[in-house]
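Note to self: the last two entries modelled the partners one at a time, which told us nothing about the interface. This time every component goes in together.
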Amino acid sequence: MSVPSNLPVWQQLKAHHAAIADQHLRDLFAADPERFNRFSRRFGDLLVDFSKHRITGETFDLLIELANQAQLPAWIARMFEGEMINHTEQRAVLHTALRNRSDRPVRVKGKDVMPEVNEVLEHARKFADQIRRGKWRGHTGKRIRDVVNIGIGGSDLGPKMICQALQPYADPTLRMHFVSNVDGAHISHVLAECDPESTLFIVASKTFTTQETMTNAHTARAWLIKELGDESAVARHFVAVSTNAEGVSRFGIDTANMFGFWDWVGGRYSLWSAIGLPIIVYLGMDHFLELLEGAHAMDEHFRTAPLTDNLPVILALLGAWYIDFFGADSQVMLVYDDYLRSLPDYLQQLDMESNGKSIDRDGQAVKVNTGPIIWGGLGNNGQHAFYQLLHQGTHLVPADFLAPAQSPNPIGEHHAILLANCLAQAEALMVGKTEAQARAELAKQGLSGEALEKLLPYKVFAGNRPSTSLFYRRLTPQVLGSLVALYEHKVFVQGVIWNINSFDQWGVELGKQLANAILPELKGTQAAAGHDASTLGLIQFCREAG
Ligand code: F6P
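The predicted structure of the combined assembly is written out below.
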């Protein structure tokens, strides 16, 4: 395995960075009228413009060479072929099989998994059809109107993001709710909006042991039984999505109403599996299949396109360029599409749980910076909140701008204003405002002398702040599938570059262990002991004040 900084091209990139770091994007654009054409790519209805990045032709070539020296093509093949590339858990990584719309068999330990994948899809289709047609009814015979997904992390963020994003395609008679937080406020508010006779709960947990999910599921179950006065009502109001049939049946859900998936589907890569059941119920199977098709098209592109045209590869290399050579430590997602308001949260788990690692595939401490801090939000709202830091702060924060050319809600000038702001922000970050421009503006406003000189430094924008623009015609299921798969593969490519395993998440375990130890101490069934003074003091406060 390769330590990235030992690769010959790493040193070349370092030297190249030193040579070009001071070049301004303004000048790069001025020097090359073909820059946009050279550094943008089309993929179906998607346009990816990466010309506003601090790269030259040489940078691009060196970054592609980095992918080659890190053996990226071989790693891509290993993932698609079902090798155990999640080596710390001895698992294959095959979320791509879930959206394999070709006839190509996908083998795990020699066995083709496609028949099982298609069987679960068929089960989900039948179930969703019954709900949508009013054939599956609640215990008292009422039609299902509210669907509550109870899950957390990958069992929540993906389905929630997709259901919101594709709401124009949804069945308007259904209301979707997502309960993830163990704070009782979350489930209380959702239950208050639901009629027990017409509510379906989907308990979604890969392990079926996650404390937050199981606590919420038990609360929902108790509420239903109390409201309907009959324990047998659970059968018509609860279904499960899990890999743990034993846990599901122990909870009291008939495994005939369980939708399974497999250990080769990571939680944060699972929206394409039965974890997508809320999507299938809300949008219908046809739209879910379009989502899978969009993702499959991106998979095929990733598997077969040359590295120089390969979108996940390009985005990953640009990310690494800033993280490892410019010292950038975060990446902001600027979403100019209200339907995608949950995308930053979704991408945060995808990226940070995958590449927030400091031990490499050989068990050694990494010597380079790895996954960035992912943050962001709706673009226009951000403009009036955090963009100040993006424009004039001391951090270099590469940005992704996402926007649809068409709006499903064409009202007056709204969409044109939205797009104008998106385009303007990317331009402003890139070009900035020189001292001479700021001086001329102030003079035009009537300022001069000391007053002008005093204000001048605050009016200058350094610019040279990089961004990628991901624009699409319309947010269709197909486009969204491609977009999500693009980011999934970007994360994988960066993991390969850094020689880390993007598919485990040991870092979430310690907190879970300690919470289990603290719980009885908080409840007072066990004396608080063995903690540092701060934790003990806080436990004491909670006990006294609680
Ligand atoms: O604690 C982290 C995590 O394991 C995520 O990786 C996962 O998506 C989430 O918890 C939920 O896990 P489960 O689906 O098993 O409830």
